[in-house]
Amino acid sequence: MRTVYTDGRRHPDSLRPSAYGHSIGRWESNDTFVVDTIGYNEAFWADRRGLAGSARLHTIERFTRRVLDTIEYEITIDDPETYTRPFTGRFELRLDPRTELYEYVCQEANYAGELMMHGDRTSEFTPDTVP
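Below the sequence we write its predicted structure tokens.
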């Protein structure tokens, strides 16, 4: 679970690094929510392929609603200890009203493989499947 503080606070001067870091959010415009995160620990991966990061990792995420069923997601990754310069990636998140969301439980060493997606199959899980 990740907490994004939206009450106007700043990042603390001293914080304990964690898997999801310390996130603060703000509205940049009526349709763009910006999340600024620091304080990751070195075990954090930015994606499922293991995009590495150090304790100096700083991310800026932008969630922009373009139309009713589409959000444009953009992330800028800045980690001078791991990469030569900041870089940005983006993709669209689209609502599929036919898809039922389920709770994903991430466990050490993926011992709960039956709770994860396999290959290109869509969600075969129901709320009864998830602990």
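The radius of gyration is 17 Å.
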